[in-house]
Each structure stands twice: as structure tokens, then as C-alpha cells.
Prior knowledge:
Number of helices: 7
Radius of gyration: 19 Å
CATH class: Alpha Beta
Number of domains: 1
Shape: globular
Amino acid sequence: MTMINPNMSDGNWPFTLRPLTPHLGAEISGVNLADDLDDAVFRAIQRAFLQYQVLLFPPQEVPPGQQVRMARCFGEVQIHVMNQYHADGYPELYRLSNLDADGKPNGRHPDKGTLAWHTDGSWQRVTGHATLIYGEVMPSSGGETHFADMYGAYARLSDTWKARIQGMRAVHNLDFSRTRRHGEDPLTEAQRLAKPPVDHPVVRTHPETGRKCLYLGDHAETIVGMPYDTGRALVEELNALAIHPDLTYEHRWTPRQLIVWDNRCILHRATGYDPATQGRVIRRCTVLGSVPV
């Protein structure tokens, strides 16, 4: 496996790059996402992606088909098992909206599971790589997206904790997280059968940077080989230990922004808003990555 150290770059970017926090996140401007990306620009975006983990692009028009094409630059795009969220004639697109047919807020949150810290696609054997979210409609208050650095979360664990969790594997289960967070609209039987629980290492080695990170989040249910309740409590304890305010980026959306992040080393969550009075519509692509090691 060839490891990449993105911090060894010379910092010469073919666009304007502005770090968002001291630890993660960068804004990239000067790239028109409505056009296909040329190879040199995309290679630089990939380098920035590995270095900063979260990339923000300023407001611009990104048509649905172009969002899918950009996602394909990173790899194979997931077709989500919850096909009730597919959008715009592209099965790779996943839309979360609280607007009715007349464009008015309907009072229902489209997916309460997004309010808990999680990483996309950890509930399948081949997990999420990059996620690209485009904000079509955003509320005037609430509805933010927060990101947390899991490299830093692992680094800040005590030596005792690191020794304790070495070699541990966690069970990740979409049915578990969906039912407890959004139980009014559970998975169908066919969806449950299509995505049974899987297990992944609690400490993951990033396949491109070689750095270790915690790999849990809200889809993690329990620990392999432990009594269920004991493993469940351990997952909750580690998820709480993983979040450090100085290792997070809290994004306040402006409509028509696009954000890309690395699911392999980032947890994210949305914040609440009033779905009866505020509209929020996002469309998402998640790129498939690899089996965690």
C-alpha cells in the first residue's frame, strides 16, 4: 500500500485555498464546479482533501448531474439502499428535504439520524470514502453541519485507552441507528436484508495517509465478543471521548455551497432547526472506498 503525506506539498495550489480552522477544513475558491474538472485541478483537490479532510466550495450552481460526475472523480458512487431518498433521476443522489409539493415546510424532519455524530456508509462492508453535499435551501437559523477530526480523537486517547481498544471490532448496523433515531420511518424488510450488520476495527488505519483514527459514530452498535450491553456502553463512551471542540469545524450554510469530506477520518452531524417554519434541502453523493483495516 502506498501511503501519501499530503503535508509534504509545496502549498502551490491552482486555486485560492483558505484554512477554516487550525486543525481541519479549507475553503477552495476559483474552481467552477459546473464544468468538468481537469486532471491537474482534481489532483490538487485530492491533495487538499487529504491534508484538510473537509473542503468547502463557495456558492455556485452545481446541477445534479454535475454533482454526480464530480463524485465519480473520487471513485464509485454509492446507490443508497433507502431508495425513497433518491433524487433528480440519479440513483446516486440522495435528497433530504422538508418541503412539500408547494415548496412549503411540512413540519417533518427528513432524517433525524443526521443529528447524531456519524460517518456515512460505515454500515456496509465497503465503507464511505468521500461525501459531497450541495445545499439547495438552507434555514435562516439552525441546520448547520459540524465536522470532527478522528485522527485527533485517537491521538488524544490515553495510552491506557489505546491499549484497551487495540484489535477491537465494532458492529455497525443501519437498522439499529435508523430505528432509534427515525423509528417513525424504519427500513423495509427488503432494505434490512440487503444491508445486514457488519463489523469494522475501532481503530482504523487510513488507506492513503497511513494515519490511525477512531472509527465509530452513531451507526456503531456494540463490540464484537462482548456482552451486548457492555459493548453498547463502551461504544457510547468512546463516541463521547471522540469529540473535542478545538478539533471540530462548525459550518453555517449559505445556499448553493458544496462541501466534500473524508468519511474515513471525520465524523459529522447536522444541527436542529424548525422544520415547520424553516426549509432545508440538501442533496448528497457518497463515494465508496474500501474495507477498513
